[in-house]
């Protein structure tokens, strides 16, 4: 009943009602899919929990020849690649966004902005393919040993993939800073760089944090780059030059296995773990957003 | 005058070209005739070694008869068998014989149309071009880690392998390294094509792939004194070999049946040979 009232039922007919109903249904559809997918993965993975294999799968090594179906090396691979990619991409993106929004002249800014816009549209496979032919040999030469297919190579390419997300997000929040603040800095004789460091970036914390977490989500979820470049070895990685496999590549590599096999069942554990990582990331982002908004309000 | 010129300059050559085209079509049509007047979709997926042959056959069929649409995907032998068994595709290719369990679960019919070796490959810059089975086992289990130990230039051995669903891996694992262990640090690639790219670009690489895929960018390794080539594979002297299969759920029917028959026809077997595989007929 509450739902019906929510969409404007029982308040007399108005042309708004069907429109509201359609939008409400779209929203309901989208959000229910999220819940349904989680439910699907947990339900299909449930037999593993009941048999107490959940812990073994989560913390063990992957060696099907020895009946060991652990995905911990893949969890580590995912975390290594996404954190390294963030570490490379965040300073680059912040610098790029600052330059375009604040420091560059109008024409340069327009050209750069266009380039970043195009970058968002480039399919992942293109980055991955270019990575195989340019980055892999390059890193192999630098690393001196190893195949060049490693965490570092994949992270560099993922960093390129996720940077437009951050740049566009940062720029959007930079552009929202009231121009009165700019005038004030100029009146005090401050340079553009001072304005950027002391006014714009602190004022945009919220936008920056949201951009960072969205980009992190993309890095965790990306499949093709890691699949084609990271080497997909099932060892536990402990250096940037180690070959590693992410959860997403693991799903892609194992999904050809038999339905009834343990290999196949482990896919649902992978899926659930990926889901958890993304959920935790989003929750942290929300919490931090709240924190900063709270502080800003109390300052006023 | 102008008319005459036109006829000489354009109409005659065009007619000649047309006649030639018809002739070519007639000659080609012998084995393809079955496909005339047919229409529909044919979905093929699975083994990646099969792709060049299947693609060429599909191209010829679709050029003759545009009403037939053939789609070809990879995914590996495991995916091919699984998808055809579930009725998602019409033909599932596999680079290994489907297991008895798979055949009985899905009621598969198997059609073998080529023989293919699984070659151990290294980069052309590598001076090690002959290995014994024992050395191969040691390399893949991680016991031998440097090319220097095998008489080559110093350099860490980079192992490339395929995922569990690969028929090529299955054959290599059983026939080349006696179901031995493959070290956890080995790199995984997703297809025969990806293996070629990886080994051709890495001077310290070792991998294994469909012998039909080996070209100048790679060196096939002599195993126990036998090089994988057409003769040694055909005669059975090179033992790391397998059939290339197309599988259907139940006996092949309709377009799938015609397609398999085409692969087994003289024309089809010629495509098999042109692509570096060994015909079965």
Mind explaining what this structure looks like?
The complex is a heterodimer of chains A (300) and B (281). Chain A has 13 helices and two strands; from the N terminus they run αααββαααααααααα. In chain A, helix 10 runs antiparallel to helix 13 and helix 12 packs antiparallel against helix 13. By secondary structure, chain B is α/β, with parallel strands linked by helices. In chain B, strands 1, 2, 3, 4, 6, 7, 8, 9, 11 and 12 form a ten-stranded mixed sheet that branches. In chain B, strand 6, helix 6 and strand 7 form a beta-alpha-beta unit. In chain B, helix 9 packs across helix 10. The radius of gyration of chain B is 22 Å and the shape is globular. Chain B starts with a helix and ends with a strand. The interface between A and B is medium-sized, with 35 and 28 residues.
Topology:
The complex is a heterodimer of chains A (300) and B (281).
Chain A: H1 2-6, H2 16-50, H3 54-59, E1 62-63, E2 68-69, H4 72-103, H5 106-121, H6 124-143, H7 151-174, H8 179-187, H9 192-203, H10 205-221, H11 224-229, H12 247-254, H13 262-299
Antiparallel strand pairs in A: 1-2
Chain B: H1 2-32, E1 40-46, H2 51-64, E2 68-75, H3 77-85, E3 91-94, H4 100-106, E4 108-122, E5 130-131, H5 133-141, E6 158-162, H6 167-175, E7 187-189, H7 192-201, E8 205-210, E9 219-220, E10 222-223, H8 230-235, E11 241-249, H9 254-264, H10 266-274, E12 278-279
Helix pairs in contact in B: 9-10
Q: Report the sheet with the most strands of chain A, covering strand number, pairing sense and barrel closure.
A: 2 strands, antiparallel
Mean pLDDT figure of chain A: 85
- General form of chain B: globular
Largest interface: A-B, 35 and 28 residues
Shape of chain A: globular
